[in-house]
Amino acid sequence: MARSFRVCDSPLLTGFLLRQIWARAARRSTEHAGRSYSTKPARLPRMEYQDAVCTLNTLQTNANYLELVKRERGQPQMQLEAMRLFLQRTGLRVEDLDQLNIIHVTGTKGKGSTCAFSEHILRNCGLRTGFYSSPHLVQVRERIRINGQPISKELFTKYFWQVYNRLDETKDAHYGSMPAYFRFLTILAFHVFLQEKVDLALIEVGIGGAYDCTNIIKKPWVCGVSSLGVDHTSILGDTIEKIAWQKGGIFKPGVPAFTVKQPENPMKVLAERAQEIGCHLQVCPDLEQYESDKQHLQLGLAGGHQRSNATLALQLCRSWLQRWGRHEAFLSLPKTELLSSHWPALAPAFQPSPAMVTGLRDTKWHGRSQTIRNGPISYFVDGAHTTRSMLACVRWFREAVAEQERTAE
């Protein structure tokens, strides 16, 4: 019986297994060459999905990537320049990414959920979607999705080796450099989406915005900023204003951008960044502004904090669809909110299309405010890494348990 390799999470174990794989392949190639005296180059055995994941894990752990970003913080532009060079070594130009009609989303909390809402809405409109997110829960393939589903093991393996081999073949001319884990996956996602000819790609920022490796994108169709908070302070700065400056770095000249309501000072920073860059920034209205007596919006993701993510998704999708040429009759609704005079303009609420309504309702995003029932046992699954996120998690848990107790009576 042929032995199979288990997908490796430990970099040390990964390195050991790879050395064993390559050593065994070399021995087989040498033995074969000794028998046949062939002058043709030896063929390596076919590499499988597990081999791809093990090789990927040698490109550094996430902790090492964070340390790399910290070291490069003194020369942040070098991060983007390095990313451009890695992209070129795989045969892509930055300009090629314009074909992806990108929605670029950053924020401290909720950017993944915002992208999930947006992806489901646009898929409901009959579009072929690509979605790049991080981190993954179980398998790395979850980070690269087409039409809402992680790409198959076969597709991941195929495109992984295409990209990896091009980088490996050119590394000697570039001082042996290979991209770190997250950079590699970002390049891989761009490659997959271009090869699979998606109509659009939703790209979630990794860390920050201005110097994140996803920010080599030059011409997104629309940008979004979800709720801001204090996180990754050693990389982004130790105040929310410094963090807002980093997040606003994804704005592009002439590209519409939307943000949810933020505290006064970071909102001012976002507005200043938008003005400096030449980007038209608008603030999303509260979700209830889209509702009427005849229509109440239901969300597939639980928790009150998801309402701000949903309104951001609605504005991003409306802007994208209008540029795409889908001129649905988005009936603007009267404004009933007043914003601070220091804030950007309030985006108009509108009557969501049926595809938007069902998209919000049917969105699923595993591990985010998720209840899993297994017979008499319920598991409440969520994640948080800031104080505010923890509080939101606690609120959702209390609400979910209370609702379950009410329905059980």
Percent strand equals: 5-15%
Question: Termini separation (Å)?
Answer: 54 Å
Please tally the helical runs, counting DSSP H or I stretches of 4 or more residues.
Answer: 13
Shape: globular
Helix content: 40-55%
Describe the structure.
- With 409 residues, this protein is an alpha/beta fold.
- It has 13 helices and eleven strands.
- The strands form two sheets. The chain has a nine-stranded mixed β-sheet, sandwiched between helices. Strands 10-11 form a two-stranded antiparallel ribbon.
- β10 and β11 (377-381) form a beta hairpin.
- The longest helix is centred in the N-terminal third of the chain and has 26 residues, at 11-36.
- The protein is globular and about 65 Å long.
- Residues 1-45 have low confidence and may be disordered.
Defining key terms:
disordered N terminus; about 400 residues; alpha/beta; about 10% strand; two-stranded antiparallel ribbon; nine-stranded mixed sheet; 13 helices; globular
Give the helix/strand layout:
Blueprint: H1 11-36, H2 49-57, H3 62-72, H4 76-89, E1 103-106, H5 111-124, E2 129-132, E3 144-146, E4 149-150, H6 153-170, H7 181-195, E5 200-204, E6 222-225, H8 233-236, H9 240-247, E7 257-259, H10 264-277, E8 281-283, H11 306-324, E9 345-346, H12 354-362, E10 370-374, E11 377-381, H13 387-408
Parallel strand pairs: 1-5, 1-6, 2-5, 6-7, 7-8, 8-9
Antiparallel strand pairs: 2-3, 3-4, 10-11
Helix pairs in contact: 1-2, 5-11, 5-12, 6-7, 9-10
